[in-house]
User: Fold these one by one.
Assistant:
Number 1:
Amino acid sequence: MNPDLSPAPPSQPSHRRIFRRCRAVLRSIPLRSSILFGAIIFGSLVFYTTFLSPRGLLLRKPQDWHGLSQHEFLNPDLEYTSPLSTPTTPAEIPLPPPPPPPPISNVLTVEQIRDIVASTRGFFTRDYSLGLGWNNVRYILDAGVLQANLLNRTLVIPSFVYARGCLYNLSVCADYTTMVNKGDAIGWDEWRDLPYEQQMGFRIPITLMLDLPRLRGQYPIITASEYLRLHGQDPATESSSGFWSRDWYISNPNIFEPNKTKTPSQFIIENHWFDPTGTNRVDYIPQAMKSRGKWERHSEAEIGETAGYWPPEDPTDISNLLMSAMPEGRAVMDWYAAKGVLRESRAGLEVDVNDDNVVEGVLHANGWEVLHTFESVLGMEYAKTVVQPMRQVAPRSTIRGFIDDYYHVDADVVVLAGETHLYRKPGSILKGALRFTEEPARAKFASMVVHSFVFPPKVLDLAEDLANRMREINDGRLWMGAHMRRGDFIRLGWAMEPTPEAHVKRVKERLQIGREVLEHLSDLSTYDLEGAKPDLEQVTLSPPLPDDRFYVATDERSPEGLEAIGDAGAVLLSDLLTMEDRRAFGWPLMITDVRAIVEQAVLFHSGFFYGHAMSSLAGVVTNMRAARGADPRTMMLD
Ligand SMILES: *[C@@H]1O[C@H](CO)[C@@H](O)[C@H](O)[C@H]1NC(C)=O
Ligand SMILES: *[C@@H]1O[C@H](CO)[C@@H](O)[C@H](O)[C@H]1NC(C)=O
Ligand SMILES: *[C@@H]1O[C@H](CO)[C@@H](O)[C@H](O)[C@H]1NC(C)=O
């Protein structure tokens, strides 16, 4: 919206450059146990959220925070630039002294912040549960970008996130970035009984994980610390938990406000207003849909759960039939299920049920509407891919539009309270946190997720170099890669195989299938994604040979485990990284969460990818490979 204001206009879109070669097979393996897994994971999510109690989210007044960490950020906007060197060996080797505080770069002036906001109707923000891992935080963020955009507001995001681990002794990373006790910083108790190492985390600038200049070159976004500066408040008072401090954040006037007693007004969208049971939250209700159902705005000026209503309609035979086919506890069903119902009904004899337009007409005439969202991977929502569009149908009366309900709110700050992906039934966990009423809006969201919400250029550049090295190792042939999630998945009993030996054997068996796919690949296709063009290297480069080395991204850390994986022919991140890479990238490469995104970005380039359907990492890799133009057959998740 303010391209000239974006501090460092995004350089030539790097996705072109990032995306090179591969293919994928999204195998529809019958979902034997996926439903059970879904239930288990959902259960654990609920468990997780019990820690999200109001006590956990207690507003932290600035004076409460001082005990949190000894090393508060000096830099108000938490930008980082790489220091001169990074240890390449474990902690026993003497380290160079920590570098001086990084220079402030890419920091907006208050005038620039003011101008970004001036192009919109005000601020939109959410409670960001920073105790979640990065991949979950990013879903809250990308849904936030969508929601703020719908309301024509400037999104306020946290300026930092928490990383979970250091490659070396914690004290090594703590010399470079703020170490915190996660329980204190977030206000959750779930880590209290864990060993010291697992209680601690690192507060790192969000710009280490996300190309913020690029994203805000396209969407009006500021960080909470920028918001605070705009209101004359100390950026160091940013909420440590990601929770939007209801009082503190609106306690000071905007510094450009001549009336010094005029503090920002605030409107809270209560969490239970967002998608109460029995309703379907959508982006907006198009005019044609409003007319079909005679949607009316509530006459009273009161603003709350919803701003309008659908006058009751008499049920029809068809709407009754559809309703009786509705899955238990849901307010939406899949397009194909609805079509099946119509085919069986009397209407099925009268109209051509194979013609989608006809089906849609019948649905409309009977009080139902078509909604757009994304297919899940193997029936599970953990991978959160945006590459497979899906249609669903719902009774019109269940539909609530985000724009319709909240665009007219004219408070300075609009806050969507709490999480919209917790406490929900697994099937209702949505990409973007809502459904779309029109296909182009769905496509636009997918496009934002893969083209605008990307890793920082530094991560992508390093990953590209590493991918090129993988190719060289295999004499220029396509190379294959896999993700072996072990760490916490071992503890939870979700890892694919208990031992590293058995796990890497499984990987090799899957990659053997992958090699055959690559050998016979022709008639290239892509996922249904804006701007995706088939990556021709998939057919111009030679396919892998049986004994080719393959790349493995893993969080396995035990030396024996890593040795077993390497002995099987796998190349690991540490094998590809040189001392020059580490120096050029700097200390963040010691943070395991940053390494994890470098590994993901390496896998974007893989000729074939095998991953774990229950891991969100697989979803990120799928999305980005899709954007690169990888053939859907060149990927396998199970
Ligand atoms: C968003 O709001 C701003 C400020 O009210 C207005 O100037 C702009 O035209 C709006 N943009 C859209 C797309 O409605
Ligand atoms: C990490 O470093 C600290 C301080 O140098 C030391 O006290 C501690 O024992 C080390 N921990 C491990 C696991 O090596
Ligand atoms: C300043 O703002 C306060 C709070 O909004 C309002 O009550 C007051 O009337 C304003 N004063 C002037 C001079 O506009």
Number 2:
Amino acid sequence: MNHANSKSLFDAAQKVIPGGVNSPVRAFRSVGGNPLFFKGGEGAYLIDADDNRYIDYVGAWGPLILGHGNPLVVDALRNQLEQGIGYGASTEAEIRLASKIIELVPSIEKVRLTTSGTEATMSAIRVARGYTRRDEIVKFEGCYHGHADGLLVKAGSGALTLGEPDSLGVPKAYTDLTHVLPYNDSEAVESFFAKQGDKIACIIVEPVAGNMNLVPPAPGFLETLRSVCDKHGTVLIFDEVMSGFRVASGGAQAVYGITPDMTCLGKVIGGGLPVGAFGGRKEIMDMIAPLGGVYQAGTLSGSPLAVAAGICMLEAVSQPGFYETLGQRAAQLMAGLRERAATAGIPFTTNQVGGMFGCFFSEEEQVSNFAQVTACNAERFQNYFHAMLDGGVYLAPSAFEAGFISMAHGDEEIRITLDAAEQAFNSLAQ
Ligand SMILES: *Cc1c(COP(=O)(O)O)cnc(C)c1O
């Protein structure tokens, strides 16, 4: 495959953009080689700067659950464009989007829009602190909640990929209030809360962890979080920026039947435009300015374009059978990959929840914690990544990212992917 144009664009980008990228994982550092530059997307496919076509399992890191250039989303955006790009004031469409979010995620009684997932989690934590009048918070190892200072402790995703779990430039005083516990370890949570639960403003957690590859919650883990929060007056925040409208129309909280006090959203609700949201119980959300004393704002919050795309996405995903179909396709893909890896004699396992999946070069039967994720064979992943790319399949360029399937991925795309995987596994076995 020829990548000459991507290569020269990367050379040019490195002169004017740090590392040539606007977000670190895009740089291919953990898989080696040069990153690809893209110029188009159509349904399940991405087209790079050299006109190569790939089946896309990144989906803009999750939002494109309908595939690239879905006509419903494009029309909604075009209609809004003709009415104006932004007003910096309220619109009727914001009420429609908020109402739709509340209808689909009943734990949310009121919701506010932001421009990114990072702002959603940062704001939700501020509100939880204001509500409880407490300062300390709990997060989990390998969970990523955006790049706010106090959350860059043992964060997953890019921070993990680069082997720098903590960032330079974050004063120690900012993270002193953040306690980090192991994901899926209910006993650790219980003993921590028994000692200092009354000081904790909130627990923030990815109810399906999607930034250390994909790790579903262990049985009882989310129940434990709910019960310690109830006991100690701590706010339970589900960061569903990734899992919301990705694993079910009601998010991971609907799949596992646990009701958080607050929820953060992003990715799918913007359909690929910059958006985030946080919401929850009315008495907590009413702490926010102008009603209460917790300040939170945004010039572009509720951008009419993002809202138009969001309404369109939520209408599409709330059609009956949407997540059954998406989940079946993901399951079919995972079963096919496991079968082909086994035939080639490569130790390999998968996780899947709805339209999200994780692939692991691991001897474990099931990967269910951070230690098992980091113990996976990184060199095999690198080789697999490049073999799949050569076979016309674009995976996230890091072993710590979840994979995403869309409704545009049909039997034909799955067949092509499995053919490429068969060759890739065979080349690993040699
Ligand atoms: C992507 C992500 C974020 C950050 O969202 P941005 O829009 O990148 O700021 C936060 N939490 C989770 C779980 C995410 O997957």
Number 3:
Amino acid sequence: MQSRSLFTRSASFRPENLGQNALQLIGNLCFALFVIGVLAFTIIAATYQPDDPLLHPSTKLTSFLVSTSNATFHSDDSASHTGDDFLTPNSTSDAASAITLIDISAQTNGSVVEFSGAGDEAADSGPSCSDGPIDCSDTEIFHTMMRAAIEMFRDVHFYRFGKPAQGGDDGKSCDMAWRFRPKDAKRVGFYKDYRRFEIARSTNCSYSVVSIGDYHTGVNARKKRKTSKGSEFKAKHAADSLPGMVVPVVGEIVNDSLPVVESEGKFSSGKYLIYVGGGERCQSMNHYLWSFLCAVGEAQYLNRTLVMDLSICLNSMYSSSGQHEEGKDFRFYFDFEHLRDSASVLDQSQFWEDWNKWQKKDKLKLYLVEDFKITPMKLAEVNDALIMRKFGAVEPDNYWYRVCEGETESVIQRPWHLLWKSRRLLEIVSGIASRMNWDYDAVHVVRGEKAKNTELWPNLATDTSPDALITTLQDKIDDGRHLYIATNEPDTSFFDPLKDKYKTHFLDDYKDLWDENSEWYLETKKLNNGVDVEFDGYMRIEVDTEVFLRGKKQIETFYDLTSDCKDGINTCRTTA
Ligand SMILES: *[C@@H]1O[C@H](CO)[C@@H](O)[C@H](O)[C@H]1NC(C)=O
Ligand SMILES: *[C@@H]1O[C@H](CO)[C@@H](O)[C@H](O)[C@H]1NC(C)=O
Ligand SMILES: *[C@@H]1O[C@H](CO)[C@@H](O)[C@H](O)[C@H]1NC(C)=O
Ligand SMILES: *[C@@H]1O[C@H](CO)[C@@H](O)[C@H](O)[C@H]1NC(C)=O
Ligand SMILES: *[C@@H]1O[C@H](CO)[C@@H](O)[C@H](O)[C@H]1NC(C)=O
Ligand SMILES: *[C@@H]1O[C@H](CO)[C@@H](O)[C@H](O)[C@H]1NC(C)=O
């Protein structure tokens, strides 16, 4: 198990030991000191049905107990946990429900898979062996393409094939989309790919696939076409089609537009909760999430719509300017579509506009709370339209998450299942993994400031040197494998000696997935009112970590490469 825990035992911090760049952590230190105490929380994946074949029953309820003192947040630069991390697949039933070659041949029997659409076109009265362009709607071509995909991509399981669309103008190719999961996936959820297939027709009128294009080349099959349902070939138990079951599908078009209130009546009969001010601005992402989920939890407890501020301030530890950066959007980092569709939230600018329009006329009342010690339980009786919690300027009493401390802890559970990672970022992850055919091993090499600080991490620099890596990895990773190196070492040529043994890959090898011609760039720019969005430090860490976590073998820095502790000398956890 690698150790991306939300909590770590706090290090025996001695300020004089902190490296220069770790100075920013000192700000977090008073924050961290404050959180010392018993922190217990439970995650309930409430949206998931018991008969969900992808989930172990035991993971429906995941408990995290940080039982004793010294519990604090990560204030380092690792990626934050989100709800999707806690969903683990049931690989037995998962593999059983994937589409196989047998399913495709058995299609006419109709026993194994649901199939309609293309098959209904009884017009296929024998192939017409003309010289014209290939007719991609031909069922036989569809079957040939599906078979070719299953045979070619042996490290993924297929759950759905969309009916092919016409490919290039030469009339010799067809585009097809599909939904898949990597074999032995460690996370629940699906991915979508669409590729261009070059098709050949032989003189006896049989078809064959000559080649399959790269990741996302089948652009004409990308969008779900508005044909009748069933223009696809689908695994019978495709888990996403189970009632009540929600899993992320990476690669489907994201619609994270802001929710709107349809009418005055609807608005004025609503009940709202808003948090205003507070010390979380520009803190670490973990701190932000810990606080934000407290607010969402309180709103759910009170049956109120949470009025939220989608604008985020990015902490300087993630920014290239080295300064805190205002004006980031929640949707750059998290899946707002999932939050919006599974909880009741409103954007604050829309809210205030409506409030100002109708508050007087409809006599909407505001209930102001300025003391975090007033518990949510005490607010349950409040009937006013809006409860506003106002937080002052004095840290740490102005942290939102303080609302969820004390006796509230046992009443309000943070709804982690509402918070998923941005699917736009996960699409980049999917792109990287797909280019390695989902068949790679991964190593996480932490260097940077930690490697320079020999007081807290005495062996890290040597243990992560290329020579040491070659020695350590030789028993763990076979020669010639694709090796993804997730690292904060800015100069990747540092790892050149590994190239003799492995095919090495780094995040920056895939820059085209977020550069100016990428889908990510165009979509985030649109989201950001036409202003381009930087692929910032937090996104880099996020994507790097997620690619690492999808490797077949995962070698962590701490515990695997070095005996130094993650948070400095003498901080290794004694229990798992
Ligand atoms: C996985 O799912 C199968 C079929 O639904 C079930 O029989 C099996 O017990 C599950 N395995 C685990 C570990 O939950
Ligand atoms: C927690 O901190 C106290 C004092 O700061 C120390 O004595 C104790 O060993 C620490 N416990 C752990 C588990 O690190
Ligand atoms: C249809 O099913 C039967 C028995 O279930 C099997 O013998 C036959 O081969 C199947 N047909 C095709 C085309 O797969
Ligand atoms: C048609 O020709 C291809 C090779 O050109 C051959 O592989 C295939 O078996 C033939 N199909 C039939 C039905 O004769
Ligand atoms: C996006 O979702 C919202 C809310 O569900 C819906 O009203 C809107 O029509 C959708 N937009 C598109 C382009 O699908
Ligand atoms: C919220 O709604 C649920 C179900 O409608 C109800 O049981 C609960 O008492 C409500 N909570 C508050 C604080 O009003």
Number 4:
Amino acid sequence: MLGKFFKKPDPELSDRVPPGQYLTKGFPVLTYGDTPQISTDEWEFKITGLATPATFKWADIMAMPQQEFTADFHCVTRWSKLDVKWTGVKVLDLMKQVEVDPKAVYVMEHCYGGYTTNISIADLMREENFFAHTLFGEPLPAEHGGPLRLVVPHLYAWKSAKWINGFEFLSEEELGFWERNGYHPRGEPWAEERYSNNLFGL
Ligand SMILES: Nc1nc2c(c(=O)[nH]1)N[C@H]1C(S)=C(S)[C@@H](COP(=O)(O)O)O[C@H]1N2
Ligand SMILES: [Mo]
């Protein structure tokens, strides 16, 4: 009886669960506000700020190399889901078509619905980051960010913007929605970068 409830976590798995996180088998939906309903026909992704302005339409994304990704997903509210299977496009593949001013060091991720989150160019331009349009073989449901979301596996999932519609390139760090509201500017789960050290906004 006790053994059933207090089983030691499989060491192989516990190695993949950052401190203070608990595994979930489902896939909770974590959204601040309403779920935007965006068709692929109207969907657009805009490059703004310190870069040559550009607009990507759905067909442009579909024309890029399509790949499958398996990634762990860690929400700062303490649930983690391992081995989420996605299909989409590498950030680095899209960025091959973007001309960024060398003065840019930060990016603001923009979304339909107004959500924002900031990320450094170093954290964004990593091999394992991708835009996803498919989740476990099915079109990405709207509540999980369809038609297209960003996935940044090495940071807490609030950096994985749903309904993403643009990158704004910046010369210095600006804070996104949760980052202005007490969350850490970077959000690295293994270092438990959950909250800002600057809780009073000073
Ligand atoms: N546009 C947008 N993206 C967002 C959010 C949001 O509220 N709006 N929530 C973030 C948070 S806190 C998490 S944990 C993940 C949750 O993704 P899911 O709802 O697919 O599980 O999306 C992130 N991306
Ligand atoms: Mo989250």
